[in-house]
Structure formats: C-alpha cells, structure tokens
Amino acid sequence: MELAQREAVGAKFSAAAMQHAQALTWEATEKIAAIIRPGMRESEAIAASKALLDTLGMDRIWHPVLIRFGKNTLRTFSERSDDDPVLGKDDIYFVDIGVVFGAHEGDCGFTRTTGTDPEMQRCADDAKRLFGIVQDHWRTHGVSGQALYEFAKQQAEAMGWVLNLDIKGHRVSDFPHAIYKAGKLADLTDTPSGGLWILEIQIAHPTRAFGAFYEDLLV
C-alpha cells in the first residue's frame, strides 16, 4: 500500500485539531494519574478514570482505558491483566488512554512510580527519554517506521532495558482512524509523516518483573 493511502484522512481532518486533541488527552492523563493512589486495585483505578473522563468534554473513548500496576506493566495492550493487583507504596504503574476530542483521536500514555525504588524510577524516566531520542532520530534522519523501531531497540539495550517489539505504534486521525487501514508504525517501510502516527515505547527490566510505557504523537 502506498504511503499516501496509509496516511489518508477524512474530510473533517485538521492538523491543528489533531494537536489540540492530543493536548487535551495529555491533560486528561495527568488528571487520571492524580487520582491513582497506593491501596487501589487496578480495576478501581480504571473505573475512577472512566468516571473522570466523562466530565472532561470528550466526544467518546476510542480505545479502552488501560491502567497497569506492578508486574502487569510488562503486558501489552491486547493482553489481559494478571489478576487485579493492588498498587503498593513502592510500586510502578502506567496509564494509557485513547479519547476523541473535536472528532480527532488523542492517544497518550506514561509511567509513574509511587515510592523510591531507584530502578523503577529510572525505568519510568527512561521510557520517556527513549521516546525523545527516537523521535529526534526520526526528525533528523527521516527514517522509515521499521528503521525507527530497530533504532529504538538498540537504544533501549544501551540503556539496559529490553524493548517490547510487540508494541509497534499506529495511526491516529479524525475518528475513526481504523477505516484507513494504515497498519503498524514499526512495519512501515516509508518515512512516516508528522502528526499522524503514535510512537509507542514499552520497555522491560531485564531481570525484575516490571516495565514502563510511554507514547505520544510523532511530530
């Protein structure tokens, strides 16, 4: 499929509206993180997050609210959580939401910690840092989606983490992006355009049962 077909948008699409939807999605994600506390179960955090999103003026949720605690931070989007863990006082979690604002899809996610475990904190920080390094590589070198994720894998290993290559990034657009059949960013043999693709980074600790996640619009 040609890149132009993969990056096709609807008649209502606006780059400015796309950016605005993403900004509102980040604000929503921060508000969700502010209500997550040790002692909560994963299911309780998800229910509270959905209730909060209903108050923020979104059009709709376009992908399920995903909140992972502890060992579940190793699981991919499509995998079910293992049990319903309680968030500890020295723990790690991530939030991933996909919501529609102004008929455009926002999608973002980040990892936070609740205590002082240095490896958990470094993992959370490095997921975001790795995103920035990979995005800068795309901006500077104009590489394909495939090359971008190969670079991400190398950089993650250099930091001491394992990149989960089952998380491949995807298109966003005016809702619903799924009609454009764009495929995954990591499978793209062309150079992705800015403002249309979500770069997803999920890393794992090499020996301990936790990881971290960060995603944002590639711009």
Automatic annotation (TrEMBL):
The lineage of its organism: Bacteria, Pseudomonadati, Pseudomonadota, Betaproteobacteria, Burkholderiales. This is (Fe-S)-binding protein. Pfam families: Peptidase_M24 (PF00557). Residues 17-217 form the Peptidase M24 domain. It comes from Pandoraea horticolens. Gene3D superfamilies: Creatinase/methionine aminopeptidase superfamily (3.90.230.10).
